[in-house]
Amino acid sequence: MCDGKDHKNGKWAKQILECRHEDGMWGNFHALSRPVGQKQYSTEQALRRLLILGYTIEDEPIQTIVKRMEMCIKGEKKIDGYYEKTHDWPLFEKLMLAAWIRIIEPENKAALEVAYSWAALVEKAFEHGRYDRDSDMKAFAEQHKRKPKSGFETGFGMFYHAALLKGVLQYQTESLFLDYYLSRNDGMFYTYAKPLNKLPDVFASRDASDYLAALEVLAEYDLAKTKLKFAADWLEENRDENGKWDFGAKANDGIYFPRSDSWRKAEDRKSDCTERVRAFLKKVRG
Fold first, then answer.
1. Would 272 be classed as within a structural domain?
2. Is this model's pTM higher than 0.85 or not?
3. Rounded to an integer, what distance in angstroms lies between the CA atom of residue 4 and that of residue 276?
């Protein structure tokens, strides 16, 4: 998720790794909200941030998390003791963990099995040329032998669905699936809560950074070069006179930014922003 300067040995990664528990985790797994002050990271927050700072499956901290997530998917060991009674929590955990594994290791066999099970639902839900809720619910009931009861079980509107399903859908279904995400009124749950086909009003803003985060997930799809051309054009139009990009000081959210140790100098902020935008454009422009 990082492309450019080496941030792996910077102060942000060091702070996260210093909070790591003996088992290589950071306590409970699930929490994708923004880290607040000195509050303990969730494992999911730590994982996301480390990936943004350049950590990969080649690094021991990521290997440890992936192994634990894979064990949970296979039913060999729980990821933690957390549980939500209002959901089919084991099903949600598999979706969530498989999505993260596929971000890190796309061909992981255990994660791919989960991906193909959800892909079967997507194929049915879009078989009439658009998303159809009745078809979605019917397919879910046939696969799981019960009616869907939680929001994540139908609709495919979450970050996890989008991250999980790259490379496993039929060509036409992928096209419809991306159109669906781009046109959803509430965007991509956990990432950006506005329509993705509407550009942010202000480029130098946290809103624009969050918007790009959702597009970065969709950029992993084969059809991204076509579907996200409008976003690539928007980014090109917002390059400054020196060929750099700047989301502004308010984009410092402790998630996507900063990457450099400090943003006291505007040049470091612009360098971080430019690094991120170039990585996105490399995927959607080639």
1. yes
2. yes
3. 8
